[in-house]
From TrEMBL:
<feature type="repeat" description="PPR">
    <location>
        <begin position="240"/>
        <end position="274"/>
    </location>
</feature>
<protein>
    <recommendedName>
        <fullName>DYW domain-containing protein</fullName>
    </recommendedName>
</protein>
<feature type="repeat" description="PPR">
    <location>
        <begin position="341"/>
        <end position="375"/>
    </location>
</feature>
<comment type="similarity">
    <text>Belongs to the PPR family. PCMP-H subfamily.</text>
</comment>
<feature type="repeat" description="PPR">
    <location>
        <begin position="813"/>
        <end position="843"/>
    </location>
</feature>
<dbReference type="Pfam" id="PF14432">
    <property type="entry name" value="DYW_deaminase"/>
</dbReference>
<dbReference type="Pfam" id="PF13041">
    <property type="entry name" value="PPR_2"/>
</dbReference>
<feature type="repeat" description="PPR">
    <location>
        <begin position="645"/>
        <end position="679"/>
    </location>
</feature>
<dbReference type="GO" id="GO:0009451">
    <property type="term" value="P:RNA modification"/>
</dbReference>
<feature type="repeat" description="PPR">
    <location>
        <begin position="778"/>
        <end position="812"/>
    </location>
</feature>
<dbReference type="InterPro" id="IPR002885">
    <property type="entry name" value="PPR_rpt"/>
</dbReference>
<dbReference type="Pfam" id="PF20431">
    <property type="entry name" value="E_motif"/>
</dbReference>
<dbReference type="GO" id="GO:0008270">
    <property type="term" value="F:zinc ion binding"/>
</dbReference>
<feature type="repeat" description="PPR">
    <location>
        <begin position="544"/>
        <end position="578"/>
    </location>
</feature>
<feature type="repeat" description="PPR">
    <location>
        <begin position="139"/>
        <end position="173"/>
    </location>
</feature>
<dbReference type="InterPro" id="IPR046848">
    <property type="entry name" value="E_motif"/>
</dbReference>
<feature type="repeat" description="PPR">
    <location>
        <begin position="310"/>
        <end position="340"/>
    </location>
</feature>
Length: 1088
């Protein structure tokens, strides 16, 4: 009976395919007699045991070799098991071979080795190794089998050991050896090993082999040797998408996006069919390049290749469109995806957060959870970003609690997101606490906290964190670190610190980064160092629209508006199309030049390029026309705008107010359906700028009553209003509101306004307290405090602060020098003032302006060096202005130099004939010399020219109410008490040596009787305000009086006596400075 082997051994041994003829001869009683098989010319006896008479399946195989037995049937059986992954059956065959005493030859032994090596079981691999080591002879296949087996289980060290032994045994490597060994070198980061293997591959002529060459390409790409990777790729015969993917990924890894795109484009052109990994990589490249058009091309190609439904590719599409800012396509891909996974939801939530649609991100997050997907570190990070964007600290705290409960708050990604969330919500202390609890920190967490410090103006903390980043954690700053620090320097106007950061950038070799270079341009422009900004800008190898905009804005901010306009033209010649920001800067330049014609040209450009519906340009056009005096055009732009948002309405309100059309402003304000804090700020600032202080205050009170939230800008406006009144008690109340609202240490502008307000209200110590408590100080803050000391006559304190400012790395500017020169003048430090004036120009490269020259004339004149002052004026490189001649005239009054005073007055009469000040001062000089005819001549000159003396106005604040007095005022409810008090004080003062100086009466003695002269002096406005303070304020309290003109000389003398009689500290602020009267002396030293 003949039975085919296929039937007899199936399915226990599966099919046995071989080119030998094979027949089994079944004996009559197969249960007891052996079955003989004839293979060609060889006979092998095989004993079969059956389970039953009806079952042809053998339960065991016993073989017994004869001297002429051929091992080929076993080799074929073992190979069949290997090919079908039937490793257990193969091992059973091997077991039977051993039990039957069969001794395999080298060929069969290699097959058995393969069986155990490829099973994937570690025990089998160990057994394979044992068999391998026991082999008397090892052929190349045996070596390759073991090398490949260890490579499969990632035991790369053993791969390299075996490879070394193989080479030592004299075996040559082939196309099966090299890929595994190259893979091992890659895994062990043995770059030298890859280089050596490449040499061996070339010698073996295998560099063209698809698998060997592909392994080399992968190695080079992983190590970033992209030129070598591309060279090896070009040498390979045939194509493999895996190899091309390796090159693309290699370029992506080193951020060479353009080169990665070039490889992708090339593989398409030569006909290599991309897989889903290729498309995902190409989409990542498009996202990094922000190339929406390229992404669209890839999208079309992947659809054509049948990958539209691939979830992996779909996720990459969402990410690409998100990075390219195409929200519509992003959402469309998401909506059309048939199958979504966790990554899909993470991607779309992250996209919505990136688009700034934080509410939508939160909705998607909740929807994801409803569908059974879990929150993880990626989507929670996006939700924290959304919370930060919404400034939703409640949601942020809720997420923080969730992270703490799930022990995720120390995770570096989520922890960094928490730091970012708290920082953006203005809670930098909480951000710092989260930061400290992070088990591991990276540049992202450091940058998040650093940005928080910069946002809050905490310069010292920011710089300390920057140093800790490197010294404690060894983290190198990246471009985001440096741009954040440069923003800090820009905000503070601290170019000294900015230059240090610039030096660090050079050492870190990050200066050739377009983002960093542009931020450097912006920083130097903000700090007034336009030459540095220009040098960097023109050195840039590449400039984008933002770079051009920064330089244009720099010119515009520093008053070089013509240069800004020229650069705007050059920008277009260089092929950069102006965007909304560059056009906005140009419109701002038109405002600086009051050039409405140029503004109309820009308006036409905007219309031609269909940009007239851009909100920022609508606002800037209205603002430009209004400030250039073309209110009709401003109204036309406003009226023709279809969608009028609250910002445009606010600008139009401000335009009306600033043009004096307060009623129109109020009407528009009342008609606005939506009014926000900015709306109120617009009208408040408008009234305040127009000097309508009472109306501004009333609107502020109305704003509070209407439950509109005031902000930092509101408080800056009202605090500045208190400065201009001045009104200390109102200022104190505002300061309390600022503290209650939590605005302390959150705005350097507001805190600087408080310093200025307290200084101008005569509370210099309160100003210093605010200044000392500021976390972030910019150059304006330092100048405000130094100027305050200077105006109060505290020259020593001004100099100390000036030195401290420079030690802190703050670079003095023209305002600083003006303040410190004024301090020199008040202190009589002539030589020091001259030194600083010279140093300002030679050492600090700060050009002296008219104000500085005026200050120097005042300095010399105050010291009695009138001839030097006159010579200084005559040698000025610029034409002396009214203020310069006025300083000389004032010095002549103090030192009673009538001749030089006449010269200065004559120049003032020519330059500013309608200014009554010089006439009054010259009249006082004549009166002091008893030249009454000349006094009358001055009076007649004023009458002939129609010049009227500005009425003196003084005021005092009592119980938050401001009391205003004019000369001779008799309308106050306490008039009688005020005058009686003054008469009484005058009598007491005379007893101490006071002699009324009637020369400070402008009228001719013929107009006033001699016995009435002293009474006339009592009617001066500052003396009336002082008297009210004395009878109304508690004993020992400081009295603060303010006057719009220079304090009268007689009043100045009388106030010294009054301070001694009453024991009061009296502060009088006139148009020039503060006078601190105490115990019969004045801080001005009788020179003002």
């Amino acid at each position: 009976m003949n039975l085919s082997l296929n039937y007899l051994f199936q399915p226990s041994l599966n099919r046995f395919n071989c080119h030998y003829s094979c027949h089994f001869f079944l004996p009559p009683n197969p249960k007891s007699k052996p079955l003989s098989a004839h293979f060609g010319h060889t006979t092998t006896t095989i004993k079969l045991k059956f389970n039953g008479p009806d079952s042809p399946k053998p339960t065991s195989i016993q073989t017994k070799p004869a001297s002429d037995v051929n091992p080929l049937p076993y080799s074929s059986l073992i190979q069949d098991c290997i090919d079908s992954n039937s490793f257990q059956r193969g091992k059973s065959i091997h077991t039977q071979m051993i039990s039957n005493g069969y001794n395999p030859d080298a060929y069969l032994m290699t097959k058995i080795l393969m069986l155990y090596a490829r099973s994937g079981c570690l025990d089998d691999l160990c057994y394979a190794r044992k068999l391998f080591e026991e082999m008397p002879e090892r052929n190349l296949t045996a070596w390759n089998t073991m090398i490949l087996a260890y490579a499969r289980v990632d035991d790369y060290m053993e791969v390299l050991r075996l490879y070394g032994r193989m080479r030592g045994s004299g075996n040559f490597s082939d196309k099966f050896t090299f890929p595994s060994v190259i893979k091992a070198c890659i895994a062990m980061e043995d770059m030298g090993g890859v280089r050596q293997l490449q040499s061996s591959v070339v010698k073996a002529g295998l560099n063209c082999n698809l698998f060997v060459g592909g392994a080399l390409v992968d190695g080079y790409a992983r190590f970033g040797w992209m030129d070598d990777a591309v060279t090896s790729l070009d040498e390979i015969e045939g194509t493999s998408v895996v190899t091309w993917n390796a090159v693309i990924v290699g370029y992506v890894k080193i951020l060479s996006w353009e080169e990665a795109w070039g490889i992708f484009d090339r593989m398409l052109k030569i006909g290599v069919c991309p897989d889903n990994f290729t498309f995902a990589s190409a989409l990542r490249v498009c996202g990094a390049l922000r190339s929406r058009d390229g992404g669209k091309q890839v999208h079309s190609k992947l659809i054509a290749c049948g990958f539209k439904g691939d979830t992996f590719v779909g996720n990459s599409l969402i990410d690409m469109y998100a990075k390219c800012g195409d929200e519509e396509s992003c959402l469309k891909v998401f909506d059309e995806m048939g199958e979504r996974n966790q990554v899909t939801w993470n991607s779309i939530i992250s996209a919505e957060a990136q688009f700034g649609h934080f509410n939508d991100a939160l909705v998607l997050f909740l929807r994801m959870q409803e569908l059974g997907y879990k929150s993880n570190r990626f989507n929670l990070g996006s939700i924290l970003m959304a919370s930060a964007g919404l400034a939703d600290i409640g949601k942020g705290r809720e997420l923080h609690g969730h992270l703490v409960r799930n022990l995720l708050d120390s995770d570096i990604i989520l922890g960094s997101a928490l730091v970012d969330m708290y920082s953006k919500c203005g809670m930098v202390e909480e951000a710092h606490q989260v930061f400290k609890r992070l088990l591991e920190r990276n540049e992202v967490s450091y940058n998040a906290l650093l940005a928080g410090y910069v946002q809050e103006g905490k310069a010292e903390e920011a710089l300390e964190l920057y140093h800790d980043m490197q010294s404690e954690d060894g983290i190198q700053p990246d471009q985001f670190t440096f741009t954040t620090l440069l923003t800090l320097c820009s905000n503070q106007g601290n170019d000294n610190q900015g230059r240090q950061i610039h030096a660090h950038l050079i050492r870190a070799n990050i200066t050739k980064n377009i983002i960093v270079e542009t931020e450097l341009v912006h920083m130097y422009s903000e700090c007034g160092r336009l030459n540095y900004a220009k040098e960097i800008f023109y050195r840039m190898a590449e400039r984008n629209a933002y770079s051009w905009n920064s330089m244009i804005e720099g010119y515009e901010q520093n008053g070089e508006t013509q240069e800004a306009l020229q650069l705007f033209k050059q920008m277009q010649l260089n092929g950069i199309k102006p965007d909304c920001f560059s056009l906005a800067s140009m419109l701002s330049s038109c405002v600086s030049l009051s050039d409405s014609q140029k503004g109309r040209e820009l308006h036409n450009f905007i219309v031609r390029n269909s940009l007239e519906e851009e909100g920022i340009l609508q606002v800037m056009l209205v603002d430009m026309y209004a400030k250039c005096g073309s209110m009709d055009y401003a109204w036309k732009v406003y009226d023709q705008t279809i969608k009028k948002d609250v910002i445009l309405n606010n600008v139009m309100v401000s335009a009306f107010v600033n043009s004096g059309r307060v009623n129109d402003a109020k009407n528009l304000f009342d008609q606005m359906e939506q009014r926000n804090t900015a709306s109120w700020n617009s009208i408040l600032a408008g009234y305040a700028n127009k000097g309508l202080k009472k109306e501004s205050f009333n609107h502020f009170l109305e704003m509070l009553e209407s439950d509109i939230e005031y902000d930092v800008l509101t408080m800056v406006t009202i605090v500045n209003l208190c400065s201009s009144l001045p009104a200390l008690e109102h200022g104190d109340q505002l300061h309390s509101l600022i503290i209650k609202k939590g605005f302390v240490n959150c705005s350097v502008v507001l805190e600087t306004a408080l310093v200025d307000m307290y200084s101008k209200c005569g509370a210099i110590m309160k100003a210093r307290t605010v200044f000392d408590n500021m976390n972030g100080k910019n150059i304006v803050s330092w100048n405000a405090m130094i100027s305050g000391y200077s105006k109060h006559g505290c020259s020593k304190e001004a100099f100390i602060l000036y030195e401290e400012m420079q030690k802190k790395g703050m670079y003095p500017n023209e305002v600083t020098f003006l303040a410190i020169l004024s301090a020199c003048s008040h202190a009589g430090l002539v030589e020091e003032g001259l030194r600083i004036f010279t140093s300002m120009q030679e050492d600090y490269n700060t050009e002296a302006k008219a104000e500085h020259y005026t200050c120097m004339v005042d300095l010399l004149g105050r010291a009695g060096r009138l001839e030097d002052a006159k010579e200084f004026v005559e040698k000025m490189p610029i034409e002396p202005e009214v203020s310069t001649w006025g300083a000389l005239l004032g010095a002549c009054r103090v030192h009673k130099d009538m001749d030089m005073g006449r010269l200065a007055a004559q120049r003032l009469f020519e330059l500013d004939p309608q200014n009554p000040g010089p006439y009054v001062i010259m009249s006082n000089i004549y009166a002091a010399a008893g030249r009454w005819k000349e006094v009358e001549d001055v009076r007649q000159m004023m009458k002939m020219k129609g010049v009227k003396k500005d009425p003196g106005v003084s005021w005092i604040e009592i119980n938050s109410e401001i009391h205003i007095f004019h000369a001779g005022s008799k309308t106050h409810p306490k008039t009688e008490e005020i005058y009686n008090n003054l008469r009484h004080l005058t009598l007491q003062s005379k007893g101490l040596g006071y002699i009324p100086d009637t020369s400070f009466i402008l009228q001719n003695v013929k107009d006033i009787k001699e016995e009435e002269e002293e009474e006339y002096l009592l009617q001066h406005s500052e003396r009336l305000a002082l008297s009210l303070g004395l009878i109304s304020l508690p004993e020992k309290s400081t009295i603060r009086v303010f006057k719009n003109l220079r304090i009268c000389g007689d009043c100045h003398t009388a106030t010294k006596f009054i301070s001694k009689i009453t024991g009061r500290r009296i502060i009088v602020r006139d148009s020039n400075r503060f006078h601190h009267f105490e115990n019969g002396k004045c801080s001005c030293g009788d020179y003002w």
